[in-house]
């Protein structure tokens, strides 16, 4: 394995689709609002969320790239933090680079620093394109969110007080993958929040948290040996499963309520298609008794979450 291949593996590309699901959904929902209220703007063809199509296109690309950068940063930091703590010495799932010795901790630390800088530069560019010089307070707010996002990505496993080792990772994922991702993206376009958007934001946040919980249920034995006190470990295997059911079911209920409230045509029900793989996922989880058997379900759940975001987004636009 070359060094480039090692860093690509450490970036864990399979996690990237889930990270951008909120960006896709927030962008579609913002378009939905403009489409259904063209009188508030200069015409849908000429204006989209108070920005011309060219500006809007740039916002989407920068939001997409910024989110990907944050996710890669989180993955690098997670690889580094778990690696130096010995958490990955007997890892069940995907191989980690620092834990396996393929990338040194010093090199991974430099990668974390470099990715942090790239993430910050992209975030600043996104803020400037979205708000310009006319919305200084919004710029400051989103800059602060960017700084907090970088700090949260690093502190998940790095340091003596890493919150991922104390059971708070679920809270971070729900807030940043759900609320901040969907509501924040929506705000970048329209400069206000429609609180109805909380419903799909909650859905994406809970399903993203379920992905983390599934990962933690898979690693429950190795985490116990390294004192990584995730919620799954604190709950125990049986209650962690119940917690998983609750996360997915509440996410589906929240999405269903949103679909019903915003129903315009039968195409608005597209999001319900994603309920099928998510329901099958829950059925499969109920039959698993060996932790390592949770691993194949990670990809299924993540892609089902992305599918839900895309279909609700398309249904809203149409």
Can you offer a commentary on this structure?
It is a single chain. This protein is globular. With 318 residues, it is mainly α. The chain has one domain. The chain contains 13 helices and no strands. The relative contact order is 0.13. The model is unreliable at 37-52 (pLDDT under 50). Helix 8 (198-218) packs antiparallel against helix 13. Helix content is 71%, strand content 0%.
Beta percentage is under 5%
Along the chain, the helix and strand elements come as HHHHHHHHHHHHH
| DSSP helical segment count | 13
Our measurement of the CA-to-CA distance between the termini, rounded to an integer number of angstroms, reads 46 Å
Briefly note the structural class of the backbone. mainly alpha
Low-confidence region ranges: 37-52
Described by the principal axes of the CA atoms, the overall outline is globular
Count of structural domains: 1
Helix content: over 70%
β-strand number: 0
**Most strands sheet:** none
Average of per-residue pLDDT values: 87
